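Question (not urgent): is this output format expected?
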Amino acid sequence: MLFELWGWLVKFDMGESTLAVLGKQTSGSSDDLGALIRALVSAAEPLEGKFNGAGKATFDSFKLRADEITAALNGALSSILGGQVGMDEAFGTGVQEQSDNAHKNMGAANFQAARFSG
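Got this back:
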C-alpha cells in the first residue's frame, strides 16, 4: 500500500486483494480477541481475593463483564469489517468503471486522425 502526498496531489496505490486479505484477517481477529479476554480472566484467577477497595471492585467488575466486553469489542471489529467490505466493493466497482470508460473512449477515438504519415 502506498500513500503519498506531494504538493496538492494525493496518490493512493493499493493492490486489488489488499482489502479482501485485510477483511479475512479482521474476521479471524474477533475469535482471537474473545479467547484472549477469557485467557486474561483465567490468568487473573490467582489474584482473586488479593485486592481491596476500588481495586477489588474493578477486578470483580472486569471478571463479571468479560463476556460483555468481548461482545462490545467484537461489535467494533464487526463494524470495521463492514467498512472494509464496503471499501473493497467500492474499489472493485471503481476499477470496473475505469476499465469500461477506457474501452468506451477508445472505441470513440479516431486513431486514423492521429497518424503522422504524409
